[in-house]
Amino acid sequence: MCQPFIRNHQYNLIKKQAVHLQRTCSTVSDPKVVESVRNNVMYKIQEAFPDALEPSQEQTLGKVADVYTSEDVQSYLRSLEPYREPFDQMTDAQLRKLFPKAKKLKLPDREAVDERYLTYLGWTDISSNKLYLVYRLDGQLVGIEGKLTPTHKKGTCFLCNRQEEVALFTAIAKAKPANASPDYFKAIGNYLCVNSSACNGNITDVDALEKFVRAVTGRSE
Q1: What is the C-alpha separation between 60 and 63, in angstroms, rounded?
Q2: Residue 24 belongs to what domain range?
Q3: pLDDT tens across 142-165, in order?
Q4: Whether residue 1 has pLDDT greater than 60
Q5: Are residues 103 and 153 located together in one domain of the fold?
Q6: Which of 48, 56, 154, 201 falls between 20 and 30 A from 163, CA-CA?
Q7: Number of domains the chain is built from
Q8: Residues 89-134: pLDDT tens digits?
Q9: Which residues are within 8 A (CB) of 128 and not within 5 positions of it... i.e. 6 or more apart?
Q10: How big is the chain by its Cα radius of gyration, in Å?
């Protein structure tokens, strides 16, 4: 039985690297250059998995070495589908518990989303211009609520680092300095994809996401 071990952002990186290798094979005639790229692709894929991989997992990922054509890319990616790890299964009650102050929280239609394609769960409440983000950090689900200010233009998303339509996502940090006054608050803002599905489809690294979640929640590394 296939044991899932590939998270969404890791799969996106693998796909990006496999396509890069295929394009190199189709445009570069020097076999030494192709071999160098092939080795680098394999290294970057393994680097995306900080925890030690089992031999069978290494073998599964290592099949990228057989990629030469676009058909090879599609075949390789299909072989990885059974190993994709879905985002956390949560009940509506668990979701609401993450946002205790949002008394009229509008939940997303999660049945319409394949959770294997999620690095984080994000949805917008248009009526209040708020965005809700859920992510598992250090083994615990964390919910962040923030104000969404549309820009109505494309920009670089701080999570996926791609050019998409973005909005300014601003959240209030929960941590306060020891000598802070009662009315102290600190807002943390970044430009984020308006479409969280597009963002989840682009993201290849969770460093920026985890840094943001830690900054807002006050969790240390």
Answers
A1: 6
A2: 8-83
A3: 999 999 999 999 999 999 999 999
A4: no
A5: yes
A6: 48
A7: 2
A8: 888 899 999 998 888 888 888 787 889 999 999 999 888 889 999 9
A9: none
A10: 20
